[in-house]
Design goal:
The protein is 40% helix and 0% strand. With 62 residues, the chain is mostly helical. The chain has one domain. The longest helix is centred in the middle third of the chain and has 13 residues. It is globular, with a radius of gyration of 13 Å. The termini are far apart.
């Protein structure tokens, strides 16, 4: 799982290990829906429980 998380976050596996403590954790933010869904699908196939949430816009954004 760590290898997949590192790949999805585009970082070294050592940097991805923080995800395991504490859980739940946010893996990525502000991805297009189809990209987020593809990431979630890959994580689920590895046994992860994944929840997608809509991104919150900052007050200065439309």
């Amino acid at each position: 799982m760590t290898k997949l998380i590192a790949e999805l976050r585009r970082e070294h596996e050592d940097a991805a290990r923080w995800v395991y403590d504490p859980l739940p954790a946010v893996l990525v933010r502000l991805r297009p829906l189809r990209v987020a869904e593809a990431m979630a699908s890959r994580l689920r196939r590895q046994g992860a429980t994944v929840e997608l949430r809509p991104s919150e816009l900052r007050p200065s954004e439309p």
